[in-house]
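Exercise: predict the structure of this protein bound to zinc ion.
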Amino acid sequence: MPARFRLTEGGRIDRSNPISFTFNGKVYQGFEGDTLASALLANGVHLVGRSFKYHRPRGIMSAGAEEANALIQVGEGARTDPNLRATQIELVDGLTASSQNCWPSVEFDVSIVNNLASRLIPSGFYYKTFMWPASLWMTYEKVIRNAAGLGKAPEGPDPDSYDRTFAHCDVLVVGAGPTGLAAALSAGRSGARVILSEQEATLGGSLQSEPNLEIEGKPALEWVEAARAELEGLENVRLLTRTQTYGYFDHNFIGLMENLTDHLKEKPANLPRHRLWKLRAKQVVIATGSIERPLVFSDNDRPGIMLASACRTYLNRYGVKPGSKAVLFTNNDGAYAAALDMHKAGIHVAAIVDLRANSEGPLTEAARDAGLRILTDHAIIATAGDKRVKAVQVAPLSADGESARGGGEKIDCDLVAVSGGWNPTVHLHSQSRGKILFDDSHACFVPGDSAQASTVAGACNGSFGLGGCLSEGHDAGLAAAKAVGFDGKGSASAPSAEDRDFLPARWLWLVPGDKPLGHGGKHFVDVQNDVTAADLHLALREGYRSIEHVKRYTTTGMGTDQGKTSNVNAIAIVSQYFGCPIPDVGVTTFRPPYTPVTFGVFAGRDIGDLLDPARKTPMHALHEQAGAAFEDVGQWKRPWYFPHDGEDMHQAVNREVRACRDSVGVMDASTLGKIDIQGKDAAEFLNRIYTNAWLKLKISSCRYGLMLGENGMVMDDGVTSRLGENHFLMTTTSGNAAPVLAHLEEYLQTEWPELEVYLTSVTEQFATVSIAGPNARKLLAELTDDIDLSAEAFPFMTFRQGRVAGIPARVFRISFTGDLSYEINVPASYGAALWQAIMNTGEKYAITPYGTEAMHVLRAEKGFIIVGQDTDGSVTPIDLGMDWIVSKTKDFVGRRSLYRADMDKPDRKQLVGLLTDAPDTVLPEGAQLVEKIETGPTMAMLGHVTSSYHSPNCERSIAMALIKGGRARMGQKLYSPQADGKVITCSVSDVVFYDKEGERTRG
Amino acid sequence: MVEAYLRQSPLSQLALPSRAVSEAGDAGVVMSERPFRRIVNLRGDPKSDAFLSAAKSTLGADLPLAPNSAAAGKDTSLLWLGPDEWWAISEDNTPPLADKLRDALSGQHTSVTDAGEGYTCIAVSGPKAIDTLAKGCTLDFHDSVFAPGSCAQSDMAKAAVVFHRLEGETPSFEIYVRSSFAEYLWRWIEDAAGEYGIAVTG
Amino acid sequence: MLEINCPYCGPRFETEFSYGGEAHIERPKDSENLSDEEWGEYVFMNSNTKGVFLERWVHTSGCRRWFNVARDTVSYKILAVYETGTEPPELDLRKDV
Ligand SMILES: [Zn+2]
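Solution:
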């Protein structure tokens, strides 16, 4: 059985395709082609929500994206979205929707008491009430959120998938109403790559609500259908329906959100729910149309009070009667079309209340001919009805429009259709930083000059007649195509249609009520945020002047609807208060998004495992098989430690550290950054980059280098080897490979272009295996027969080429552990094979794979720094006690900064060792150190612990710290107060804790 | 010679051969790994005739000088990477190029660096290849901008890559990616192509 | 998101580039003879121009070349790109600010 308010014929719904849906727990029927709003209205449901602040009953006020009242929660559990506009939700079988912002139900909401207490909730209420004391804000916020609603967050992770894509086109046309279709046709026929985006599922825009219009002498919708067919046939045109163009950013970068599956009952597997289009368009045609403006009158927010254009849409597009007995309230001729449509559909039109003294125009004539009652120079001064409007009070206006003459007449009705004129949808134009002008004749803001490669056409440009829209659209599309280099041949001529404006009009921004403003009866300006004309006046009385401040203080236009129906009325009311022209008040900024965008599309597929690359070395799978725990070093996954069964981290690390001192350990060092440096000035280049001297390094030798920023602070370190006269291989710390290469390129290209040097990243060309420990030489000897490993033939800080395990290799005798150590580089694809060969051969030496943690302990025993751990961008080589590596005889990056007077200050933080009094106590890294314990709250801090470990080889804890004037404090007792109130006592020491003479390294 | 079986490709852990089909069917996107290519990174001054002619005689073709363009040399593909940087790419079974280039260019301000061990190549083709790549890359892959035979360095998802569009009617790309990013990138592309249907080929 | 025309690779999205601050600041060759203030001026002080600003960018994800850009810091319009080490082209600054 069809719903009660459904017309038996007409509209663009499919009556052969019934759909059931649930709203607030009750099952209803609608048809394919309905929105949730049209289906509810067909069932006589007007009350759909409660207002934000006062919890007043609210209904559906519009039929489009501008809806400020009917905000709906769709779905349940993890698959739910709050704040969707009922007017934009396509009806799909099984849809579950509910009102938000009401408790316990939309019919009975306890917070309605806010309405009675509204005198206590003035503008700026939140600022005034909740600013003090600050400590209570969290509590306030919870209460407000609970009462205010604004929908519910999903209860679990979003089960849907979202897509994101970049895109490019010559011409983007936004909006597929008559203007946009004409633009897409002329641009598309020219051969340009066109994207036509439309927020709705169907094309035609306002034409879908207008039954009588003709284009090219035939019904307008036939022209729309032909346009659709032609555009779909053009290979260079992409039609994106159900796609909201939500943001216009710099350099014609546009954000669009496409809805792919919400309207489908069966969601195809693998199809994302929404797609974000990140589009670069060479030209943009903005054809976003216009939105009807409500009138601001007393208690203008009751369910059943709607925009006149919305009533036409529900009648003509959805075959739904939005009421049985209607009163129209207008200031222009355009709304009479709604009265005539209602009359024809069998709605009793009780009266047309027209603010104008003289009602005129072709539609007015038609209404008179139809015998409709027209009350000119009249206003609605009050409305009645709780969950639905049931009557209006209509009275004649005083000459100045400031007040009503007499108590007037009560007219019963269940529908009030309102028209206050039209606002061009200038949001995208404004977001693009285009100028906004005021059009006096239509009393609305219209686009001025464009700031980017865009044009505005049609109703969005203040051209309200159909003929003008079509020709402007056509011209804009053609001009855009020509601007990107197409000749425009084959674009035909603009489609023709009659032109008709909604003029003339009377602009009465604040319709007088039966009581003075603010004394009973609310003149709502922004229904979503419950801002009334009285609130605006209060803000102005309190001294606010800038419209941007008034907006924030009263929150008008700051809801999810972005003030689509409220902004102009608010600005006009402010201008009236000051008695100045509207343009003098200015216009508030339109910000993206035009309508809310699902969070999921911004994340796209960059979630879970795909959130960030997990960089893996060639040996990664072997480490996984060995049960390694991994540590993130930048994006790299590095083995942290290799626990045996039953071992905790501490035990595993101790075992690994001991193995490297007692026999042999093996580590995957492939992540070290490697930069190939070639050219006749390569040595000179290194000389300028590093703090130490490089010109005389012998071929086949290696040297440790320290690199500074121009501010003198340590930036990176590593070993660089001379492969040939003009050929070096630099290593960098693992996380720093890209920044170091960028640093080198910057100096090479911008400061020293005269140097003949080329840099190439070869980090991943090689797999690197480091073997360390007294048995390292014996192990390596079993794996190579073409390298003489004797200490004399292959001394410390040199490298040799040969074969290891049959694989061509470069073997470096360098050490970060302080023990006999070799780093073996092989082509990356052989990394796993090399690792396995070393593990197999090393079995007899109980070879032990070790991870980054053991490496950190081993190097700390030797006092070797880790850049980024023992330094933090504020540490010089002098602070580190590494004066020995700083040349006094040449320039290098950062040198001059080391001689600044401030660098000499005795209280600079210097790197020292720390030994705790209790050898088993390990200082926490980051712990602060003080000279003496005070009872009061502020103790002068001397510095902090940068590295701290239990050292199995020293059989006690060791730590490194940056301490003010640290080197002058050798042996001094320092104290580290802990969060639990305990104090750790330690003394300052040298940073080298083990094998101070370095015999083991060179052995 | 080193035993070839000792080599492992960066995507070996994905066991792609076990998924490979011989016919792509109606898959919108066809993917495969083309590992172990030799890549020589070549730097030099394009204004130097000596450099260009020495390079040409070794490579069998002029170095491509137009931005984002590729050329075919003798058994090699030559990709323009920058105003003074190229890749010469050849299959594993061809003689190593780097030494020949070094010899031919000796004495000039150039650099010749083997780079192939640090990369693998992911091939992506099929009628939906462009839609798939557009999801992760800001480049315009349209025929009018990125014609067959073009190449470009850019980012795909969060990995730095080199794209090479092969000749042919159906969009067909080779994507060179650093080995450590290969698993991530493969899985990202496969996820992005999910809505179009994927076939893995050998 | 800006579109930057790399002088070598052509127009690319901003995400492929890294910013390098003010252009045409030469590293002093005689830093020995500079006072701390003068050296500090070089290392730390950049102008913060409202209007057309000459700045450095590097095409990180592409050719890795550094180059210069004349950009209006108000409108974000890019008026010119030119190679490192060359002079900026003549610009009608009054018109663009
Ligand atoms: Zn570039």
